Amino acid sequence: MSGTHSSSSLPAPIARLWESLRERSRSKRALLLMAPLLVFELLLFVAPFLILLRISLTNGSQDLRYAPGTWSLSGYSEVFSTDILLNAITYSIKLGLLATAITVVIATFYAYAIWRSEGLVKSALLFSVVLPLLTTLVIKTYAFMPLLSPNGTLNDVLLSLNLISEPIQFVPGTVGVVVGQVYIVLPYAVLAIYSVLATMDWGIVEAARDLGASRPRSVLEVVVPQAMPGIIVATVISFAWSVGAYAAPGLLGDGQNKARAFALVVEKRLLTLLQWEVATAYAVVMLLLMLVSIVLLTATLNYFGGEFEYA
Amino acid sequence: MHRERLENALFRAGYLAILTFMLLPLAVVVVTSFAESGNLAFPPEHYSLVHYRTFVEETHWLLAFDNSLLVGVGTTIIATTLGVTAAFGHEIDDGRAGQVLAPLVLIPLLIPPIILGISMRVYFVRAGIGASYPSIILAHTLWATPLVYFVMRSVFSRFDWQLLDAAKDLGAGPIRSFVYAVLPNVKHGIFVGALLAFIISLQEFVMALFLSSRSTETIPVVAWTQIRQSLDPMVSVVSTFLIIISLIAIVIATIATNLDWLSKQLS
């Protein structure tokens, strides 16, 4: 039963050769297993982006969506010379920053609460995050219409408590867009921070408290810096998705919101006006703007994260 | 001591307020689906099942359910196959391919769906399969595969690899050793990954909107069109079904693994 294929019974040099062959076939097999997904990503993600980039560099066309084969910067000049870019910065980037700031603060607190709770409470809190996460954003935005419209639930409550004398129009309007967008991204942000907190040792916080730190201070100076990797992921996700928000401004926004939101403007150019070179150029410019903003945001967070740590 | 009690009360009030904010909108949707009147108000004045009766009679909603099911099943099959094989390959050898693959599958999740939707639309229209089932399925696969992949990497990382070596030493080929030594130990993980892929496809909206025609519209797309035309509790009925499906999926996934692990996979 001393299996001849087992390396242990072979002379040392042959055994080493056998092992290296086995290693090589192992890595070849691994590559073979990963190849389908690699090919899929190249065909369905990388290739579409290269084509997007290529079309953004073509000329417009009267009767086609763009003029194939041409080279031109007309799409970009349309983005830079009209109010498209101005709206992108004063509306979409601003909405992104606002929604992200609110989301990340709430998410950090909630993730901390989940981390500190146990048993049934913990399950209930986690459930309250996972269920909205797995619900379509159409429902998540639609739900705010009966709640926030002028004759909606919130206005009824405020009126009956005599806090306001006439209904406030949260929806359609910017307040509704921000609330809806925060609701859409909050579950992702909470879980990103929670999964980092879950690896953390509570003993560090206790040590800080034993040394006399108050509760809020121990959270701010011990928990937040430790959770920073999660907070950064939460920031990036919230920001990217809020800048590109489609459903919230489309459903909860007024005419102003709809005319300025990146996603709705780019949709109109693509599907209604059939100006593919402008739509794709705008998408490319927006991606670059987002990339720059994300780098700046992450650097700021890292800076302040470090600040807390050494305070 | 007094201060500590105040802090505790504030802390609890804080997270209960957020808990309410997380669940109230979904509760509103479910409750309004039982309204008697045709306008959307919360809480409704009278309750009835009238909108459920109309829903069953309307064929365009049933067509949307069929479309969603078809797209969801297609996405689940492709995403699970791609995700499980790639995660397995990455786990047996963490070479250069793996180092390229991990960030590559993650990036699409960090790009706003609207931009993915545009690039896919342009790509598929040029490829001649514009608004069709395959284009929606492939777009959803791009979104669902990372989840299966990361779930499976987490599952495989806890797997005892000596079992696989043992199977090989006993003479089993690569496929037999996978089926008999690996599969029984990771099937829960694969099941949860597939379930999540299905739910993600079922609920995805922006890419589906850009890639569907009237005959291939999924439920979220039809709901969106409906809301834009007129507000009536019918959308609440459909939404209630979608929420219940996700609820059931969470319960099943929690039984197969546990809620804490599931939550960490979703981040």
UniProtKB/TrEMBL annotation, chain A:
It is a multi-pass membrane protein. Gene3D superfamilies: MetI-like. GO terms for biological process: transmembrane transport. It comes from the Archaea. It holds the Pfam family BPD_transp_1. Residues 89-297 form the ABC transmembrane type-1 domain. Keywords: Cell membrane, Membrane, Transmembrane, Transmembrane helix, Transport. The chain crosses the membrane at residues 30-55, 91-112, 124-148, 168-197, 218-241, 279-304. Its main location: membrane. The keyword Transport applies. It is found in: Cell membrane. GO terms for cellular component: plasma membrane. Belongs to the binding-protein-dependent transport system permease family. CysTW subfamily. This is ABC transporter integral membrane protein.
Automatic annotation (TrEMBL), chain B:
It is found in: Cell inner membrane; Cell membrane. The chain crosses the membrane at residues 12-35, 69-88, 100-124, 130-152, 190-213, 233-256. InterPro entries: MetI-like (IPR000515), MetI-like_sf (IPR035906). It is a multi-pass membrane protein. It comes from the Archaea. The keyword Cell inner membrane applies. GO terms for cellular component: plasma membrane. The keyword Cell wall biogenesis/degradation does not apply. One of its GO terms (biological process) is transmembrane transport. Keywords: Cell inner membrane, Cell membrane, Membrane, Transmembrane, Transmembrane helix, Transport. Pfam families: BPD_transp_1 (PF00528). Its main location: membrane. Residues 65-256 form the ABC transmembrane type-1 domain. Belongs to the binding-protein-dependent transport system permease family. This is Binding-protein-dependent transporters inner membrane component. It comes from Natrinema gari JCM 14663. The lineage of its organism: Archaea, Methanobacteriati, Methanobacteriota, Stenosarchaea group, Halobacteria.
